[in-house]
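Notebook B, p. 112. Complex prediction, attempt 2.
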Amino acid sequence: MTIRKRAQAGTLQSSDLMVFVEPAAELTVEIESTVKQQFEHLIREKILEVLRAHGVTAGKVRIADRGALDYAIQARVETALRRSGEA
Amino acid sequence: MIQPLGPSERERARALVESEGLAFDLDLDDLVGAWEGGDLVAVGARRGGILKTIALSSAHRGGPLLGELVTELVRLGSAAGHDAFFVFTRPEHAPSFEALGFSLLAAQRRAALLEWGDGLRRWLAASLPLVRPGANGAAVVNCNPFTLGHRHLVEQAARRVDTLYVFVVREDRSAFPFDVRLRLVREGTADLDNVRVLDTSRYAVSALTFPAYFLKQADDVAGIQMELDLRLFARHVAPFFHVRRRFFGTEPFCEITRAYNAAMLRLLPPLGVEAVQVERLRGRGEAISASRVRAALRSGELAGLEALVPPATLRFLRSPEAGPILLRLAGAEGRHA
């Protein structure tokens, strides 16, 4: 799928994350996280996995993470992608 | 459940906000709140990327409502195209925002300014290649446009430090747009080896840290803003660039700049930054200032300009590119117009 417009999902609450996506020529993933030091590579791998699963090859993806678990990351990224593809 | 508040609900919002000892103002893009059994129990507003006027009834403090309120304001701001968010709040509430991922930029007795995300860290990281060791100095300038007066300040300051950082105010609220102001400062100081020119981003004299600079009044609010602006500079910017001295020109005309100068002299030294005031360069009896240059441009007296501005600025003013700016000046009045 294609990121057609700016979209967002998630909350600022602890154990959650906020995902922002917007159209861009290349694929970039920016991660801010309270646990960035230890887990950035795992968070990034999870996000890339969701993007791959949806065939997303371009767009700017920004994550503000408050210590979310894998399934929360997956759900929030999927929701943001779905919102960004809606007409 | 956080909901938008319509115009008819503004008086309820005002009552809650004022009962918490905050001022309610209508300069906003979004106003949202939460209801419980017919009572308004939480209110928050957004203006651009700035979240403000956030108030919770006392029974709801410490619960999830603040996070829900801020989440909704960030969502609305993001949809409106903003990607950086800030909040002004009372210093005692700063920890509640830190728990939501905000970090403190500056605080004083009555107000705190926090940023969501790591914009400041990223701005500093992007400036890292310019950082030099030593006893360095800084000047924060608008240069609307760059004059011989600015040149004099930069020369005097550069002599007294290892590296001088000239921060050009990024905010585009002046007659000369930011990219032109920055370019004229770069060209006008290119021969000075130890001068580095960069922009302030949002982190000095901006619509965020010091909105009153772009207005006229020097009131209580302006005083609080100046202090937050200077504390942010002393706490985050100066240490990163090894800045020990901040330079500025004496101000003969403008009340708010004079108040800002006085605030630098008072606040910076205790924070570890020496405040150095440099006497203005005078030309034909009067201090050379950008406002004098703009007045000359407005009245079309281009003959005396070479006594006020360096060659690069003069070249620009005589170029076709300056046309729209000169036209705008001819039709405008105001402090930065």
